[in-house]
Amino acid sequence: MTAIVVQARIDSSRLPGKALLLIDGKPLVMRVMEALNQIPCDLRILACPEDSFKELSPLAEKCNFKIFSGPKEDVLERYCRVIRHYSIKQVLRATADNPFVFADAAASINAEALALKADYSGYSGLPYGAGVESVCANALLRAGEDASSEETSFDREHVCPYLYTHPEIFKLHLPLAPLRWQGSDIRLTVDTSEDFGRACELFMSLKNDPFKYYGTAIIKKYTEIFP
Questions:
Q1: pLDDT, tens digit, for every residue of 98-118?
Q2: How many domains, the chain?
Q3: Hey, what long-range contacts does 33-36 have (CB within 8 A, 24 or more apart)?
Q4: Domain that holds residue 202
Q5: Mean pLDDT over residues 188-196, rounded?
Q6: Which of 72, 86, 117, 177 has its Cα between 20 and 30 A from that of 205?
């Protein structure tokens, strides 16, 4: 079973309450889930801390996502609990900061990961905030067991660093993205008020585009608006 698991929380130090900020009438976290709904998978899950469950639960339901709550700071453990609870084999990891995930690139990297039986896969060269990570569930469980000391708190907060910093343990697949999806100078994530303003403008420009979830359409529109 392949599952998209998107981590989300209400509080944010740089942009408080950003998950609930409205982009054309819907919270940012819903726009993220709408983009992730374009990626083929067997299951979609919003993984949040316990203190965000009540507010995020109805939003997940509206987007046909299941919701699962777990530790707030130990996000790696949150993912491990999701994996065990739903018996997941492959995880497409996403974050609630990114409403412009390239659905076509996500499907492509996951297909490559499965074909190669890689433990961790991700494209380099994509715009910041456009990609997802495809991870073997057993590899994440192994990371959850190994990255257990205080010295690995960064690994536990950010979920995947333990995998890609230990190539002697895990099989990595980190190809350069195809040229049509490249744009490392483009910033699509939402982490600041400036990011949010840019995201709102980009979303409105793409709103009626039938290819609005595809990388080439997003890059084309971004470069037109923000040359």
A1: 999 999 999 999 999 999 999
A2: 1
A3: 33/6, 33/59, 33/60, 33/63, 33/65, 34/63, 34/99, 35/98, 35/99, 35/100, 35/101, 35/103, 35/213, 36/4, 36/6, 36/94, 36/101, 36/103
A4: 2-225
A5: 95
A6: 177
